[in-house]
Amino acid sequence: MSAAARAAQLGLSHVLLEKTGHLCDTIFKYQKGKDVMATPASLVLRSDLDFEAGKREAVLDTWNRQTADAAIAVRLNAEVAKIEGEKGAFVLTLKGGEAVHTEAVILAIGTQGNPNLLRCDGAGLPHVQYQLDDPGAFLDEHITVIGTGDAGIENALGLAADPVQRNTVTILNRGTDFARAKPANVKLLTEAEAAGRIRIRTETTPAQVRSGELLLDTRDGQETIRCDRIIARMGSTAPRAFLEACGIAFTSEDREAFPVLSPEFETTRPGIHVIGALAGYPLIKHCMNQGYDVVEFLNGNTALKPADEPMLAAKFASLPGKRSVDEWLTLFGSNIGIFADVSALQLRELMLDSEVKRFGPGDVIFERNETGASLFAIALGAVRVEVDRNDTAKTVPIDQGSIFGEVGLISGRRRGATVRAAEPTVVVELTRTAALKLIATVPAAGRAIARISIERQLLQIFGSGLTSEDVAELVAQAEVQTKRAGEVLLAEGDDGNDLYVIRRGSMVVEKLIGGKPVFLSYLPAGSYVGEMALIDRGQRTATVKAAIKSEVIRLPGEAFLRLLERKPQLLDKALTDMAARRDVNAFIEGRKDNFSGAVDLYSETAQFLVDNGIGEATDVLLIDEKLCVGCDNCEKACADSHDGLSRLNREAGKTFAHLHVPTSCRHCEHPHCMADCPPNAIKRGPDGEVVIDDSCIGCGNCERNCPYGVIRMDSVPPPKPSLLSWMFLGRGPGPGEPSKKWRKEHAAKGPAPKQAIKCDMCSGISGGPACVRACPTGAAIRVAPEAFLSVARLADET
């Protein structure tokens, strides 16, 4: 429409073909009353038609009026069936058989007519729909929205907007981030959840659609919810068959790939141009600018630069040399591996959300233990990673075209090493949001990042002096698999052909003893399993299943055996690990012979620990109730170490035998609280502790996302008088957390703003966790994953 408006303004012969009976079908199909956003705000609108943020109806009214005023040649109900001919002499055949002759073609057909379909049992049932026209048409229904892009979020908000409708709205997000959605929409969604209007289910996917209910695969296993209607908004893809029939090539064979385009939006079929969502630029402002620009190009205005040119020029101004924006973009696209299948238009958008930096030889790009979840790509030069904190001379090179920082992106942990420029270097730093969007929209980029992260994880886990070349065969054949909670990875008695590395989550190992499954061990992320049957050429000696939703890397067994033959030191490591696991088996078998109840208690205790968050913890507080005297010194010490606010509720939580898991942070391997923190206030410390810094804005997202209820929103109380003043003069509330009454009475200027409060493992306080130090009987202990089994054995032996 914007292209046609520009053609009309220039007096060019044109016709706008629209297959429906109205203009702007995508906007027309937006739900009634939808707010249409005009983002990015910093981008200048370049069009003969007006556009500003507003209601769907107002936007359409403006465009319909201006289209008529501009005398744009529009033909409605004119769907194109095929395009034949060549540049300067195309013939477009309409569905009715009529032919339209034209010199050039601009395709702005979008992707909405080709939605991604739900792929699970029952997906064809009649209560599954892919479009929402009027949210007000549904009353008192349990509705599940699948997909957390802009369309899914806006549908969910519309269905939950009017409390009179009494809809129960749930939205499913298969991950923890909202990579495809605008920040404004994410903010509205989390506010709606806080108000109780919508339930957000992260790390959740549909497993089976049934009449009146929906079976879900969740982080903790399968769950059934009531569901009267499903709105599936999982994105859409280009109508590839039609485009390829027109002679248009794509950037790759991936289903979500986009057409190959020149800077003038011309496809590989000369004379046919593509703009808008079909080009990979779905935002309305971008689409309208492209419509304007492509007609200017066709009219001979070759000097015209895109509207985002000044912003990109400012970003690249400090880089070496005198390259233009186009030259820098070409260099980034050709030099950086993960950008190989990114279109020129997508690359421009990506650069707007990224930073480009130059470094001299020896300059630090980031330090070990720095916070950061961004991803770096090397456009020019190379870097060196300091792998030994005690010897900075020991480094690993990363050369031009590769990436680094992927650990922070995937796990949210602090930087694991210092990285310096090895020579004059230019890097592109992608924000976490930009990197996740790249992974979500360009499958080839996602695969490249996954391959590099797998390689580096294997080198870290196996060690033994291995190099990238040593594990190249394994990486090439590696396969990432997702396992839902409780799903079996290896079954006892099966043939052992492959090896598995736990990339994310955790596994439990069980063995049938006396006809009952007995817990053997717990395997956190970073462990590997399956080597015993592989090396022994025998059957699996135990069953391994996911404790929570997990990711594993499957490594082909024969390739791993060839690696063992080449690397004897790796074989020695594997044999040592096997011996340790056999010791665990022997411990269980031995206890069973002496007293079967002891083994049952050990197994049940270990399973209890996993069920209560140990499966994803890196550090958890446990209390031995045989030793605990209920003095509450642990809570008081916690409060006195943290501005008068305790991060611990000793009495809350669950107990098995005499082991109690109080309400206190588990410091999860992949913290749920980090999933949607607007100011990025939640970080990992050098010892794995998850901490919240002073940039917290009190939005409460972390409190809502934590499955263990260990985060609360509170304000820091006024300073208390000293302990001596309390002891000798009776001033102040005494040790521990002051009462709300005292806080209110002594607040200097009214209540302070609330912030998120949680255990930080006493980070920065010498001596370690105050709760453990203050326990007079030794009942309180902090347990790391490698000590979980020792705790279970302790319960058995006592």
Which SSEs are present, and which pair or pack?
Blueprint: H1 2-10, E1 16-17, H2 25-28, E2 35-36, E3 54-55, H3 56-69, E4 74-75, E5 80-86, E6 89-94, E7 99-102, E8 105-107, E9 128-129, E10 142-146, H4 150-160, E11 168-173, H5 183-194, E12 198-202, E13 205-210, E14 213-218, E15 221-226, E16 229-232, H6 240-245, E17 272-274, H7 284-298, H8 309-316, H9 325-335, H10 344-352, E18 354-359, E19 364-366, E20 375-380, E21 382-386, E22 395-399, E23 403-404, H11 406-411, E24 418-421, E25 425-430, H12 432-441, H13 443-462, H14 472-477, E26 479-483, E27 488-490, E28 498-504, E29 506-513, E30 516-524, E31 528-529, H15 531-536, E32 543-546, E33 550-556, H16 557-566, H17 568-594, H18 596-611, E34 620-624, H19 633-640, E35 649-656, E36 659-663, E37 682-684, E38 690-692, H20 701-705, E39 712-714, H21 723-729, H22 740-746, E40 755-757, H23 770-774, E41 780-783, H24 788-797
Parallel strand pairs: 1-4, 8-17, 9-16, 10-11, 10-16, 11-12
Antiparallel strand pairs: 2-3, 5-6, 6-7, 13-14, 14-15, 18-25, 19-24, 20-23, 20-25, 21-22, 21-24, 26-33, 27-32, 28-31, 28-33, 29-30, 29-32, 34-36, 34-41, 35-36, 37-38, 39-40
Helix pairs in contact: 1-7, 4-5, 12-13, 16-17, 17-18, 18-24
Describe, in plain words, how this protein is organized in 3D:
The chain has 798 residues and is an alpha+beta fold. The protein folds into 5 domains: 2-113 and 238-298, FAD/NAD(P)-binding domain, CATH 3.50.50.60; 128-232, FAD/NAD(P)-binding domain; 318-446, Jelly Rolls; 472-592, Jelly Rolls, CATH 2.60.120; 608-716 and 752-797, Alpha-Beta Plaits, CATH 3.30.70. Helix content is 30%, strand content 23%. The protein contains 24 helices and 41 strands. Strand 21 (382-386) and strand 22 form a beta hairpin. Helix 4 packs parallel to helix 5 (183-194) and helix 12 (432-441) packs across helix 13 (443-462). It is globular and about 90 Å long.
